[in-house]
Amino acid sequence: MAIKIDYQLTSQKLLPKVERLFELSGKKILKIEKTWNPTEGAPVFTVRGRYSTLGWTEWTQGFQFGSALLQYEATEELEFLDIGRKGTMEHMAGHVSHVGVHDHGFNNVSTYGNLRRLIRGGKATPYAADLSGCEMALKTSGAVQASRWTQTVDGTGFVYSFNGPHSLFVDTIRSMRVLGIAHLMGHVLMGERDRKISLLQRMIEHVRATAKYSVYYGENRDAYDVSGRTAHEAIFNLNDGHYRCPNSQQGYSPFSTWTRGLAWAICGFAEELEFMSRLNSGELESLGGQAEIESCMMKAAVAVSDFYLANSSVCGIPMWDTGAPNLHYLGDYLNQTADPYNSHEPVDSSAAAIAAQGLLRLGNFLSGHGDEKEGRKYHQAGLTVSAALFDEPYLSTDSNHEGLILHSIYHRPNGWDCIHQGQKIPNGESSMWGDYHARELALMILKEALGRPYYTFFDETA
After folding, report:
1. DSSP string of 229-287, one letter each residue
2. pTM of the prediction?
3. Which of 207, 247, 281, 389 has its CA 20 to 30 A from that of 320?
4. DSSP 44
């Protein structure tokens, strides 16, 4: 493995870094509140230290208000609860009924889901009356997301991306959370002639499709079949439902691995494993049975996690794509500490924030199911990545910079990321998803250090 796992790290040892992160985080959230103009759209990434918008799909708005809710949960400072609640109620309704995106889990679970969890946990009593509204939003969001459905040749299918019905994105596995929450509340998608369509079934079928078509297992699927590698996009023939080929929108190529997509898979499969263990096994019998479903998810989760560990620097921070064309100029970069200021290819801190959460979840799941050795490996790897991420040069300590975690990459092929004067590659900037997931990761570690169960998307207590 390229990452050098620190087996001496504990969540308690990381507490000073976590507390410092939340101290800085609060100031950043308040600063954005003062500078953000809602009429310009959702803040997406920073340009020279200030959050800017990019009217593409507004997939980051939930991270803006969700960050305030996470900040409140970590610090119990009521002004952040007020910011998160107000932003959710005033700006998120359109995302609930948005039929054109695959991002419902990002936008609506981060806002309505977090607020609901806080209310049910007794930590948002001033807004207890909002509970029914949050639940209606999540039910609707789950059904709308499930309605973006493409049937494959085997009669199952997947939730298709905003690219169209032919497109399965690896990212979308993390949007399955909203189907899971809606299912737990007893909701279904109503189809023609009042047909009741199970949200749980669609969730599981999408996860299976992602495991089958987005993840490689070293089984000679093609000439670039390396175990654990992921493809950003899988393309299907809509005439007959057959899979055709891999593709990449934000990575370097269909045959290299865009590391944020890899990170979405790590986090998504791990939390879906947690969710399945929450269900009554009887619910899963007609869908293949709990053992088969968990086996499919576990195979994918382990493969992508191991690939991440083998293809990150010793500190656990990855390059933006494992096949980026100028990596050869960096020499033996996997056995060095990542350098975000190199002259050839950028790192992606947002991939690290997402992946670290998945590694912690996978580690805890395995340990809780009797595999303590492997569980400890992934758990300690998650802490190792967090230790690097929650410190300079990634933690943004500049009070004039609105971002929390530096050196995030959005869309390298499109050239959307800011390149500063004197630099040859993008660095020094933040993203709304990177900052949100760093806060989510820090909250998990904080709760673990204090002996509290870390939160899950389906947990109804805070």
Report:
1. -B-SEEEE-TTT--EEEEE-SSSS-TTS-BHHHHHHHHHHHHHHHHHHHHS-HHHHGGG
2. 0.98
3. 207
4. E
Q: Please check whether residue 353 is in contact with residue 394, taking contact to mean a CB–CB distance below 8 angstroms.
A: no
The DSSP code sequence of 402-446 is: --SB----S-TTTT-S---TT-SS--S--BHHHHHHHHHHHHHHH
Check if the beta carbon of residue 216 is closer than 8 Å to that of residue 168: no
The CB density around residue 288, as the number of other CB atoms within 10 Å, is: 15
Q: What is the pLDDT of residues 332-387, one digit of tens each?
A: 999 999 999 999 999 999 999 999 999 999 999 999 999 999 999 999 999 999 99
pLDDT digits (tens, 9 = 90+) for 154-201: 999 999 999 999 999 999 999 999 999 999 999 999 999 999 999 999
Dihedrals φ, ψ of 233, to 5°?
A: -135, 140
Q: Which two tokens stand for residue 187?
A: 């909701």
| Token duo for residue 142 | 């789950």
Q: What span, in angstroms and rounded, lies between the C-alpha atoms of 90 and 87?
A: 5
Q: How far apart are CA 62 and CA 460, in angstroms?
A: 19
Q: What are the structure tokens assigned to 205, written together? A: 């079928």
The DSSP secondary structure of 159-204, one letter per residue, reads E--TT-TTEEEGGGGGGHHHHHHHHHTT--EE-GGG-EE-HHHHHH
- How far separated are the first and last CA of the chain, in Å rounded? 36
Encoded tokens for 430: 């933040």
Which residue ranges form the domains of the chain, and what is each CATH number? Answer: 15-449 (1.50.10.10)
Q: Tokens representing 286?
A: 């007609």
- Looking at residue 320, the DSSP 8-state letter turns out to be S
Residues 113 and 159: beta-carbon distance below 8 Å:
no
pLDDT tens, 254-307?
A: 999 999 999 999 999 999 999 999 999 899 999 999 999 999 999 999 999 999
What element of type H or E holds 46?
Answer: strand 43-47
Cβ(375)–Cβ(365) under 8 Å?
Answer: yes
> For residues 370 and 157, what is the distance between their CA atoms, to the nearest angstrom?
33
